[in-house]
Amino acid sequence: AGERVGEAIGSFMEAFEEELRSFRRLLPAWVPTRGRRRIAEARRSISGVLDPIIARERASGEERDHLLGRLLAARDEDGEGMSDAQLRDEAITLFTAGHETTSIALSYALWLLAHHPSIQEEVAAEGRAVSGDRPPSAADLSRLPLHRAVIRESMRLYPPAWMIGRAPTEDVQIGGHVVRAGEQILMPQWVVHRDPRWWREPLAFRPERWLGDETEGLPRFAYFPFGGGPRVCIGNHFATLEAVLILAVWLKHHRLTAAPGATLEPMPAVTLRPRSGVWLEHTAR
Q: What is the Cα–Cα distance from 154 to 149, expressed in whole angstroms?
């Protein structure tokens, strides 16, 4: 089931990019383009996995201490619970936001470290010094500053959420331009994170920029991999913890090198997926 959902989400991402980057995005929503048919097919595939699980949990009538159980138990201000469609949408959102983005961030981080072996060795040495032979834990986070710097720098260069949108609730003027209420404003992290006005050597992988005072005094939204404001990603702290600890575990046991001939091509869909994956070679430490 997990593989089926993963394949469906991958197909959805590719179809979304196809629609976004072609004239088809200008067509009315009812026009059945190839990408829209693929998106509908992916939605049916995911529903085919999740709907029986939701039905089984609802029919059991038991309160279970897991994510779906908590969603089933949730009630709005009128005491109403979620419909099956709402539960399915929440599950898909949480899977995409909580799994897809962290795995992408780690993929790019490992690619960058494989192409910067001296930094990789420094990171691995920090991990060994902090946790020795035991697995790293959440309590070690503050003692892994270089690991955190690598994740931050990776998300600066390759932000999993590469662009976000907002719509003002009332007319607003920005830089001399009037944006009407309800109009979409697109804010690309990919562009802002590489802007030389804010970043020294903006295209270089330099985790050390996060270890001193170089990034102090940055404008508030010069770096916003998790968005910002009232709608900032609620999982930002957990995602950072998760990525740092996985990175620490991996580098403790593996040395990464670039695979011969491998290239990296980001795919700007819903998230910034590597189009053909991330290909690396590893050996045991």
A: 8
Q: CA 142 to CA 109: how far, in whole Å?
A: 19
User: What are the residues whose beta carbons fall under 8 Å from the beta carbon of 225, sequence distance 6 or more?
Assistant: 155, 156, 159, 160, 161, 189, 193
Structure tokens at 52: 């029986």
Low-confidence residues in the chain, pLDDT < 70 = 1-2, 95-98
Inter-residue long-range contacts of 135-142, CB under 8 Å, 24+ positions, other chains counted: 135/249, 136/245, 136/248, 136/249, 136/252, 137/245, 138/241, 138/245, 140/245, 140/248, 141/241, 141/244, 141/245
The total number of residues shown for the chain amounts to 285
Residue 8: the pLDDT is 80
Indicate the pairing of strand 254-258 with strand 280-284. antiparallel
Compute the Cα dihedral for 48, 51, 57, 60 and give only its sign. Answer: negative
- State the DSSP code for 26: G
